[in-house]
Write a structure and sequence with these properties.
Layout (H helix, E strand, L loop, with lengths): L4 E7 L5 H13 L3 E7 L7 H9 L12 H6 L6 E4 L17 E4 L12 H31 L1
Parallel strand pairs: 1-2, 1-3, 3-4
Helix pairs in contact: 1-4, 2-4
């Protein structure tokens, strides 16, 4: 898509954090960015992520998880690659070559949460809200750069 900066969100399984970040950036600034997400070891969508996104009016239940290495082999290039792994697992987040900007956001993994379903759901809501705040701040920073 001409004129749009390409953004890739990456986490280990592409099952929650990167999917939520992709959905938020599309919703909040899809007119400025072409957005994808992928994982190092793609798995299945995390039902906690699906539920908390549904609560804010976004349906990610039909999203497919993607392999970051498949995107690389296809020759995809990105203006930004943003890893959303937590610090304890950051070493497993892949580096995507050939990008203009690499960013890392330390975000807890919903699949590592403990407690009852309701407790994990509440913690995943906090993660969702953290992702939204990070996306909003990043969009604002990008606007300031464009104005300069």
């Amino acid at each position: 898509m001409p004129g749009k900066q390409r953004v890739l969100f990456v986490c280990v399984h592409n099952s929650a954090r990167s999917q939520m970040a992709e959905a938020y950036l599309k919703q909040l600034a899809g007119d400025r960015f072409e957005v994808e997400s992928a994982g190092l070891e793609p798995g299945n969508l995390n039902p906690l992520a699906v539920e908390v996104m549904r609560e804010v009016g976004m349906d990610i239940s039909h999203n497919k998880t993607k392999d970051v290495f498949d995107l690389f082999r296809q020759g995809r290039m990105y203006s930004y690659v943003i890893t959303v792994c937590d610090e304890s697992r950051n070493e497993r987040c892949p580096l995507f070559p050939g990008v203009t900007q690499r960013l890392h956001w330390d975000i807890a993994d919903p699949s590592a949460l403990s407690g009852s379903w309701e407790e994990k759901l509440e913690q995943t809501r906090e993660i969702r809200d953290q992702i939204k705040r990070k996306i909003e701040r990043w969009i604002d920073e990008e606007k300031k750069i464009l104005i300069q």
